[in-house]
Amino acid sequence: MSDKVLGYLGLAKKAGLLSDGTESVVASVRGNKSKLVILATDASPSTVKKVTDKCGYYKVKLVTAGTMSVLGNALGRELTACVSVNDEKFAEVIGKFVVTD
What we know:
Helix content: 40-55%
Largest sheet: 4 strands, mixed
Radius of gyration: 12 Å
Oligomer: single chain
Distance between the termini: 7 Å
Structural class: alpha+beta
């Protein structure tokens, strides 16, 4: 995952336009707030299934990229399995630059 994507994720987090962690991401998807979901490549199988199923049902774009530590570091945490970008413009910009691992 590029430094540009990680920088945008950090900005979105500071602006309050991002949800991180499985339960927060699922709640954002259910609430139709989520515009893009990024799932870590090393997320647990149960997390992958839960997030994939919710994104499929609610028709939210899902991208698998980065590891849990890479996503976590971008957000000032140790580990993060998934993030939801809840702003259309940030999702558009991040979607352009995200490269799956």
